[in-house]
Amino acid sequence: MSSHSDLLAAQIQAAISHAIERGDLIGTVPSSIPLERPKNRDHGDYASSIALQLAKPAGKNPHEVAELLKKVLEKLAEVASVDIAGPGFINIKLNRASQADLVRTILSAKESYGKGTALAGVKINLEFISANPTGPLHLGHTRWAAVGDALGRVLSAAGADVVREFYINDRGNQMDLFGQSVQAAALGQPIPEDGYQGEYIADLAKEILAENPEITKLDVEPRLIAFREAAYKLQLKDQQRVLDTFNTHFDVWFSERSLHDGGKVEHGLDKLRAQGHVFELDGATWLRTTDFGDDKDRVLVKANGDLTYFSSDTAYYINKRERGFDICIYMLGADHHGYIHRLKATAACAGDDPEYNVHVLIGQLVKIMEGGEEVKLSKRAGTIITLEELVEKVGVDAARYTLIRYPVDTPMVMDLDILKRNTNENPVYYVQYAHARIAAVLRNAAELNIASGLDNFDPAQLSHDRENELLGSLAEFPRIVASAAELREPHRIARYLEELAGVYHGFYADCRVLPMGDEPATALHSARLNLCAATLQVLKNGLLLLGVNALERM
RNA sequence: GCGCCUGUAGCUCAGUCGGAUAGAGCACUCGCCUUCUAAGCGAGUUGUCGCUGGUUCGAUUCCAGCCAGGCGCACCA
Questions:
Q1: Tell me, in Å, how far CA of A424 is from C1' of B30?
Q2: ipTM value for the complex
Q3: Shared domain check, A475 and A389
Q4: Which DSSP string corresponds to A328-350?
Q5: Do A485 and A548 meet the contact criterion of CB atoms below 8 Å apart?
Q6: Whose C1' is closest to the CA of A84: which nucleotide?
Q7: How far is the CA of A485 from the C1' of B54 (A)?
Q8: Which residues in 248-267 of chain A line strand B, with CB less than 7 A from it?
Q9: CATH number at residue A86
Q10: A31 beta carbon to strand B: under 7 Å
């Protein structure tokens, strides 16, 4: 069953097309009809500004155009009334019983309500976090851990075939430095000047020594490698463990080394050469990314023969495409925004369409407030906040939800004091509370043996303004999911859930669901119970998309 | 200098194809628990949508130029 908005849009399109055929209207049929749910309830359940847009090319007064469409819309069984307001807005009120039929749709679809097919058949590689395995995940990674995971869920809901991937930067100087640092800690030597500091280095050293006491007896070179590899293994395992507790899961952990060991970098270079954008200069090998909007060309192979990090990036991109991904989404920190041009240019150099095949999301910084003051984050001062510490302070649900509810391209401030509060100030509780509240009503109804289920559902019972408003919000969910997927903006789900929770609380205050005292249960009670069950389902589906728990009790 | 992001209520922030009186939470004032979770609901107050132009029936939204803040501009990783 298609939604009312789809139905109305189709009907308006058909009406316009007829009017043009009859010569009542001049112009073309618009491909999409603007149809919105007005903020002001007096403006009906749906409103369209289509008449204003059609008026000019038709050389007509917007009111005349609106009248034309009104006549057609009024005949629909689902439509209760049509009004023309202001400069030519068409305000449509739906037949309430027909609108209430949505409850049936939701309760039949269950967890699939909200899912769509907009991205069906599209293979998406979603890469996020991709931290060095040289330390614990910190605040910056945490934003991506929450948003990236939620985006993966949202894209899947839109029908995409999503693979979440973590690129492990396990190659290069940083890894060696990491190994040296851990070794120094193990041998009781000072940590190198530009090495890794922090307690975790000492912890790693201790663990490695406990596991393999013989390690110190190795020759200098193999010993360093042994320390590096052992520390790498432990640190990676630790990152995986922490992400697991954060409810963020990856399908693929992709090692940078595997690109090199498997000859994939050379393969990528060959492919780029074949496309004709590779050149030699000053003894180095370059990719002419300036052909496609980058501000300078990039070195692939240094004059000394070493491969650059950029060469790994390009090979990795080519590898992703060869694994069959249509769209590669990169989620990067604000300090990496300079990569956008070169990533897109790389795709173009490989013969791809950078506008379609590559999508880069830039996440702005997260500031932390505690005790009314900004917490200064500094590696040197040891005041870095790790993902694990954040979760210890505020819990997984509050941390995830807060990080997700803002668009990623805006800097955000996390106030830890607010996140610890269980009040309205903390939106995650507001939404979870609505869910728990409904769960309580349903439990009580079961105890009272009130007839529920769709066999006992009469949509005509739901005629209260609050019920109507709630139905309207529930109807929006599929649209919200679709736009969140299309725009890669999971925060829209969170904002929607807050609105839905608010609408439910309003309904709850004005519409008694269960019979009072000895009052007999009526068809109205059953209908409202079903409406509650439908709301519960949508809240649950939405929270699941965010990876936040839908609590039965609070 | 070049590039990316941001500028909306006292605070933290929503507001995708341009639409009707610009929203939410907090803060402040006042009401609502003798029956479903008051972690809730309702009412009131709060704005030069950074500035200046342009596009048009109509601009917080699109375009240009400025101002302010954040972050980047390696044969580093």
A1: 19
A2: 0.93
A3: no
A4: EEEEEEGGGTTHHHHHHHHHHHT
A5: no
A6: B20
A7: 34
A8: none
A9: 3.30.1360.70
A10: no
Nearest nucleotide (CA of A489 to C1'): B16
Higher pLDDT, A139 or A219: A219
Burial string for A318-344 (b: 16+ CB within 10 Å, else e) reads: bbbbeeebbbbbbbbbeeeeebbbbbb
Residues A385 and A442 both lie in one domain: no
User: Does the nearest atom of strand B lie within 7 Å of A270's Cβ?
Assistant: no
Helices (H), A59-91: 62-74
A285-292: long-range contacts at Cβ-Cβ below 8 A with a sequence spacing of 24 or more?
A287/A314, A287/A345, A287/A346, A287/A349, A288/A349, A289/A341, A289/A342, A289/A345, A289/A346, A289/A349, A290/A345, A291/A345, A291/A348, A291/A349, A292/A344, A292/A345, A292/A348, A292/A349, A292/A354
A59 in a structural domain: yes
Average pLDDT, chain A: 90
CB atoms within 10 A of CB A134: 22
Q: Judge if the beta carbon of A429 is closer than 7 A to nucleic acid strand B.
A: yes
Whether A437 and A468 map to the same domain: the answer is yes
Tell whether the model's pLDDT for residue A441 goes beyond 90: yes
Show the domain range for A411: 367-419
- DSSP state, A191? P
What is residue A379's predicted lDDT score, i.e. its pLDDT?
A: 58
Angstrom distance, A332 CA to B62 C1':
28
User: What does the pLDDT look like over A223-263, one tens digit per residue?
Assistant: 999 999 999 999 999 999 999 999 999 999 999 999 999 89
List chain B nucleotides near protein: any atom < 7 Å from a Cβ: 2-7, 12-17, 19-27, 35-42, 56-58, 70-77
**Which A residues between 507 and 546 have a beta carbon under 7 A from any strand B atom?**
508-514, 516-517
User: How much is the pLDDT for A382?
Assistant: 57
For position A239, what pLDDT does the model report?
96
The answer to whether residues A444 and A456 touch, using CB atoms and an 8 Å cutoff, is no
Chain A 112-171, CB < 7 Å to strand B: 132, 169, 171
Q: Is the CB of A364 under 7 A from strand B?
A: yes
In-domain check, residue A210? no
pLDDT recorded at residue A71:
87
Give the position of tokens 């000859």.
Answer: A263
Domain count, chain A: 3
Residue A85 β-bridge partners: A89
Which pLDDT score is estimated for A1? 36
